[in-house]
TrEMBL record:
The active site is at residues 97, 346. Its EC number is 2.1.1.192. It catalyses: adenosine(2503) in 23S rRNA + 2 reduced [2Fe-2S]-[ferredoxin] + 2 S-adenosyl-L-methionine = 2-methyladenosine(2503) in 23S rRNA + 5'-deoxyadenosine + L-methionine + 2 oxidized [2Fe-2S]-[ferredoxin] + S-adenosyl-L-homocysteine; adenosine(37) in tRNA + 2 reduced [2Fe-2S]-[ferredoxin] + 2 S-adenosyl-L-methionine = 2-methyladenosine(37) in tRNA + 5'-deoxyadenosine + L-methionine + 2 oxidized [2Fe-2S]-[ferredoxin] + S-adenosyl-L-homocysteine. Specifically methylates position 2 of adenine 2503 in 23S rRNA and position 2 of adenine 37 in tRNAs. GO terms for cellular component: cytoplasm. It comes from Phragmitibacter flavus. InterPro entries: Aldolase_TIM, Elp3/MiaA/NifB-like_rSAM, Methyltransferase_A, RlmN_N, RNA_MTrfase_RlmN, rRNA_lsu_MTrfase_RlmN/Cfr, rSAM, rSAM_sf. S-adenosyl-L-methionine binds at residues 172-173, 204, 227-229, 303. This is Probable dual-specificity RNA methyltransferase RlmN.
Length: 378
């Protein structure tokens, strides 16, 4: 399906130069663009009519052709540990999720005082990772840059606090929506925009090697996280179909290219799934790959998803896996994830909402497969 966009174009991701063009089309002087930026990003008004120093003709033009909000907050779920999940309804009736993770533990497992927001980049996902809720109903469309920016703007308003760490680890594959994601990052990083430091913005990918190289040449020093989840092609092929198109050799060639262009250390995200990728062999292979690229490892026990029958390893096995990786002089964190009681797995809340509304059919649970025999068949 092609991208759907509102009839009225949101201005949240417009650059100053683009806003100059907007006011020029309305027959106004360029200084009006600076006033627009002030209202949009500093004062965070939600309607043009709140912009008291703009002329009536300009306000009429803006109201006719543009907008500032296209997302409606449909639900907020909070957990005992203060993680909050936001469900937003889009202009076309679909839903996306955004998760606010409290200070003291960042989404990537590093202890900090930052408030981290996990944002979505697509409605659904086409990459069909076998353990993930985001792709259970398939792919609908890309989010626009403004829809991405608006997630941050709306959460900051609701939570009453500033977001200072941003991760593209929500619904969708960010690098499959490259143009809108990088356009959003430009507005999110800019001093005239949301003003989040580039080093506090992380883009996560399931392994789109060509786009990783393209992002490496993007001028901002954003961070990169790889949803690895398998340290061998055999394991990764079973749970991540993207690996058949971009196997590990190609992925790591792209990661070496990244390291030549960016200073930040790469993070490997590795969801631990019982009897699938939690073996000692996988731990040793993961440690070898991480050392080879000087990457950090973030281990995440599997988060239960409705419609899927994967399980998380028990705590002793989680700890054993972590200790094997750490024994190879790799920086590794085992994150006992926040939000397990609010269906914090990517896409799960949206899946429930759209199923209940009849927008999509309820997913049929997949039969759980153990691939241990396949891995060790030789």
């Amino acid at each position: 399906m092609s991208d759907a966009v509102p009839i009225s174009t949101s201005l949240l991701a417009h650059t100053p130069e683009e806003l100059i063009s907007v006011v020029a089309q309305a027959g106004e002087k360029s200084y009006r663009a600076k006033q627009l930026i002030e209202w949009i990003h500093r004062k965070r008004v939600e309607t043009f009519d709140e912009m008291t120093n703009l002329s009536k003709p300009l306000l009429a033009y803006l109201n006719e052709h543009h907008t500032l909000r296209t997302l409606t907050l449909a639900r907020v779920e909070g957990s005992a540990d203060t993680t909050r999940k936001y469900l937003f309804k889009l202009h076309d009736g679909r839903f996306v999720e955004t998760v606010l993770i409290p200070a003291s533990v960042s989404f990537a497992g590093e202890r900090s005082n930052r408030r981290t927001l996990c944002v979505s980049s697509q409605v659904g996902c086409a990459y069909d990772c076998k353990f993930c809720a985001s792709g259970l109903a398939g792919f609908t469309r890309n989010l626009t840059a403004s829809e991405i920016v608006e997630q941050i703007v709306q959460v900051e308003k609701h939570a009453g606090e500033r977001i200072d760490n941003l991760v593209f680890m929500g619904m969708g594959e960010p690098l499959a929506n490259y143009n809108n994601v990088t356009r959003a990052i430009t507005a999110l990083n800019a001093q005239w925009g949301v003003n989040i430091g580039a080093r506090h913005i992380t883009v996560s990918t399931s392994g789109l090697a060509p786009q990783i190289k393209k992002l490496a040449e993007f001028p901002l020093q954003v961070r990169l996280a790889i949803s690895l989840h398998g340290a061998s092609d055999e394991v990764r092929n079973q749970i991540m179909p993207v690996n058949r198109k971009h196997p590990l050799d190609e992925l790591f060639e792209a990661l070496h290219f990244w390291r030549q262009h960016k200073k930040q250390r790469i993070t490997f995200e590795f969801i631990l799934i019982k009897d699938i990728n939690d073996s000692d062999e996988q731990a040793r292979l993961l440690a070898h790959r991480a050392r080879n690229i000087d990457a950090k490892v973030n281990l995440i026990p599997y988060n239960t998803v409705d419609g899927l029958q994967w399980e998380r390893p028990d705590v002793p096995q989680q700890d054993r896996f972590r200790d094997i990786v750490a024994s190879h002089d790799v920086v590794v964190t085992l994150r006992r994830e926040k939000g397990h009681d609010i269906a914090a797995a990517c896409g799960q809340l949206r899946l429930r909402e759209e199923t209940q509304l009849g927008i999509i059919a309820a997913p049929v649970p997949e039969k759980r497969r153990s691939i241990t025999t396949e891995i060790h068949a030789d």
